[in-house]
Amino acid sequence: MRSISKLLESWSTEITNSADRVRLLIGDAHWLTDGAHKENLVREFIRTRLPAGAQATHGFLLSSGESFACSPEIDVLIRDARSSCSFFDEGGVTICDGRSALAYWQVKSAFAASSLSDALGHVLDVQSVLTLDAHEAKVWRGICFMQCENKLTDESILSTIKGQIRKLQNTSEATTSSLPTCVLALPRFALFIDRGGPRGCWRLRYFRANVLSFAVGVADMLSHVYAEYSDRHAQPLDQVLDALVDVTPIIESLE
After folding, report:
1. Within a 13 Å sphere around the CA of 140, how many CA atoms are in the beta-carbon half?
2. Distances from the Cα of 48 to the Cαs of 44, 101, 115, 200, in angstroms?
3. Deepest in the core among 16, 30, 134, 233, taking most CB within 10 A?
4. Dist CA 163 CA 150 (whole Å)
5. Tens digit of pLDDT for each residue in 151-198?
């Protein structure tokens, strides 16, 4: 089991080390290049672990019907390439039917209230397009922060997340399916959002999984994706993580 633990820990170090190299070389000379590089690292990492027939790309989702609404750009889009042909797939950009979407990620540099607010708004906008085809609840949604300051406490992180969700509630018709399934920050935490709280409230489960946080989030997404290709809803990676991540989550409810 120890060798498996080291392997999963290396997932985070592999991503962060590669991301840091670009920043070390170019500094703040071009933030778009730095951001695109991080998105590509996550996208390529996931691509090699998907089942045959699933595609990891970046691009846009279109609704069907007369509205033909278009989502904002998605950093890491996982789609079922078996279900339909994409409308456009060239130069690393994919434009496809929203009903082929299985999961997606927004990739951000550092965890902060402002970047979280942007990412939550982005998820809401993507989900509004998927809602037109009644597909929004079927898609796994993640936000991945590549860095989290050590000075932040678990309590302050949770407070920030809850505060930004409340702000979203006050400005839109936010539902469970318009929120992310997972928010994670390397190498600190993975948080999951569902309707498991009392009286149907939102439940926030915060795991301080540290260096395993990336593996926890990716494993949850892969479990969702593989469930579309198999009758087995529990994957071996889930079982390994259950044994390794001996962390009792902080659970909070949000009305």
Report:
1. 24
2. 7, 18, 28, 37
3. 16
4. 20
5. 999 999 999 999 999 998 887 766 667 899 999 999 999 999 987 666
d(CA 206, CA 189) in angstroms, rounded, equals 7
CA 6, distance to chain mean position in Å, is: 23
